[in-house]
Amino acid sequence: MNSYNCSFKIELDSEESIKKWVTAFNEKSKETMVYETCRSGKGKKVVKIFYLRCHHKQRQSGMHTKSNKKLKTTHKIHNNKHTNCPAQLMLTLLPPATKLNGFCVSVPLKHNHNHLVQVADALRFRPLSEQSKKDYYDLFSHGHSPATAHLEYETNLMYSDKPDLIADRNCNPKVSDVYNLFNKWRKCNIGVRTGKYLFAELEKCVAVYNEEYNDIGGKAFIQRYSDCNGKEEPLILAVCTPLMSRVHRHILQSKELVFIDASSSFEDFNNPMFVVSTSSAAGGLPLGIVVTSAESATVIHQGMTKLSQMFPEDAFYGSGSPKKIIIDDSMAERDGLRKTWHTADILLCTFHFLQNIWRWLLNVKHGIDCDERQILMNLVRKLVYAKTEAELITEYSHFENHPFVKNYKNFNSYIANYWVRRKEWALCFRDAVYMRGINTNNYAESGIRILKDIVFKRVKAYNLIQLFKFITITFDMYYKRRLLAIAYNRMDRYIALRYKGLGALEVNNIKESTTKSIYLVKSTHYKDRVYEINTTVWTCTCSISLTGYPSGEPCKHQHAVANKFNLVAPNLIPYFNGDGRFLYALVALGVEQVGDKSFYMGMNEEFHRQSEDNITHNDEDDNTTNVDDNSADENLSFALNYIDEGEALQEDVGSLCRKFIEDV
């Protein structure tokens, strides 16, 4: 350990520059010289004197004295920070008139530390740097907890060229330091956990949000919880982000079918959160979120009414109210929604309805024999999946007369209560066009899971302010990424399976009928069968619903028509259609950021349009074709088959690509 005394002068002209020099000195030497005293100079020769000492010189807090009547002993704790180090540094700021050779700060230094400086045991006591604090604050702002932030930060240091920085507290704060930083950040950015100060800060956040995003459709509302003089005002936090407003405006399914589901455990007070969503080719998309302090019909009605006031003028694709709403079997939720949207049909999720029946049968208290449960369950399933109302009435008559049902009067009474509400759960009463093959609220369940797994990362929010920020920032950002995956044609194959609708269809078998918006597609399995596709509501006769009418669920015939005639189908992912991809980009980004429409065109979209023009021209010329037109038909048919056959892609990707390029 080298000890020396020296004196030198530096060119500094202010107290601020002196502080910066001391910081740079500590960083370069790995020492920690801290300010002990500061005295103003006497007379005209000295302006101010700064006395600094090594931070290992402090009162010996590690020396504990045990006293008794006869003996005093001192016990020293080893590896203590305080070593009574004599090292000193003094900076004397001289007035401008006394500058010597351009230097105006005199620095006598006593470098006589009584400990090693650049060793791990000494570096662990260095104070935190401002840069490390800033890095941790950035991690907290991006949703990291203290534990995940510390892991992320240390991992990055380990990947650096100097892994010994792990030992330096100046660069790598301790775990206790990280939690202290997090508490400071949380207090400044999130506030307190509860109380009137929380609602005051939350109201400020909502006001700032409305002022910033009101012009592009972002709105929020907050009603404080209060219980004064026996009159209780429930908590209501309603949010409609700009993305949710654009879903209302541009997604057709928002007026047809809406899912509403509730969940709690998002913050310490377990206030229920209601997520309003709809279906699309991108999966479930949010329409609005309401957080309340109770789940009664009155509170739900108040919350949904406030949320509807946040919606844009053309809410639910311009209809102002959804046609159908699928929920769980909650009486309070059902009554509250009926008061809010009078014209909407409230339907029960088929899965949860049958699940409730099965749970009732499994309950030992009801006394159902194990061997008879499945038979009774099948009787209920026949009621749910009856094709017509007449068949439903017949099946219910068989149900009542079944010997097992007669033996269990409690089960008969249980189903009789549901029979009064049969229009809510029997599929024969549902309009297949609006349902589009969806009879469960899986989209809502998926939205709740996204909230818990991705947005909240299975960690509760600290308070309502953080909950509000998670909804308006993280939740919104997730769905933007999801929509842009379609807009940029980067959808994962396993996600796209539900909506791909691709099949091996000959282009010549896809024709336009004499009726407007009606197209005809020949079946690939039955030569004498032709399917009709109505592009006004996007239905196909290949999937006749239980009611006997075409359903709106996606199919390969709809996809073939959309590709050949360059149409945007709401049921299907627009693989080749630039207009469809532009629509999803518009929902994700808005008019201000979506950019030029040509950016979203497919590489071969212009080629496909030329192929369509050639086909139309050939039909007008008495079906006379030439070599180029046949080649175009083959190319378009090949493109349809190319995307659908994943197995062929795996077997011979190279040959398929070469054939496609040669044909083009």
Describe this structure in words.
- The chain starts with a strand and ends with a helix.
- The model is unreliable at 60-78 and 615-664 (pLDDT under 50).
- A hairpin with a 5-residue loop joins strand 17 and strand 18.
- It has 5 domains: 4-118, no CATH class; 130-189; 196-348 and 457-480, no CATH class; 351-435, no CATH class; 502-663, no CATH class.
- It has 26 helices and 21 strands.
- It is elongated, with a radius of gyration of 36 Å.
- With 664 residues, the chain is an alpha+beta fold.
- Strands 8-11-14-13-12-15-16 form a 7-stranded mixed sheet, sandwiched between helices.
- Helix content is 44%, strand content 17%.
Can you give me a brief rundown of this structure?
The protein is an alpha+beta fold and 664 residues long. It folds into five domains: 115 residues, no CATH class; 60 residues; 177 residues, no CATH class; 85 residues, no CATH class; 162 residues, no CATH class.
Architecture blueprint of SSEs:
Elements: E1 4-10, H1 15-29, E2 33-40, E3 48-54, E4 63-67, E5 72-76, E6 88-93, E7 105-111, H2 120-123, H3 130-141, H4 146-158, H5 175-189, H6 196-213, E8 219-223, E9 226-228, E10 231-233, E11 236-240, H7 242-250, H8 253-256, E12 257-263, E13 273-278, E14 285-292, H9 297-310, E15 324-327, H10 331-340, E16 345-348, H11 350-362, H12 370-384, H13 389-401, H14 403-407, H15 409-419, H16 422-425, H17 432-435, H18 442-455, H19 464-487, H20 493-496, E17 510-512, E18 518-522, E19 530-534, E20 539-544, E21 550-551, H21 556-564, H22 578-589, H23 605-620, H24 627-644, H25 646-651, H26 653-663
Parallel strand pairs: 12-15, 15-16
Antiparallel strand pairs: 1-7, 2-3, 3-6, 4-5, 6-7, 8-11, 9-10, 11-14, 12-13, 13-14, 17-18, 18-19, 19-20, 20-21
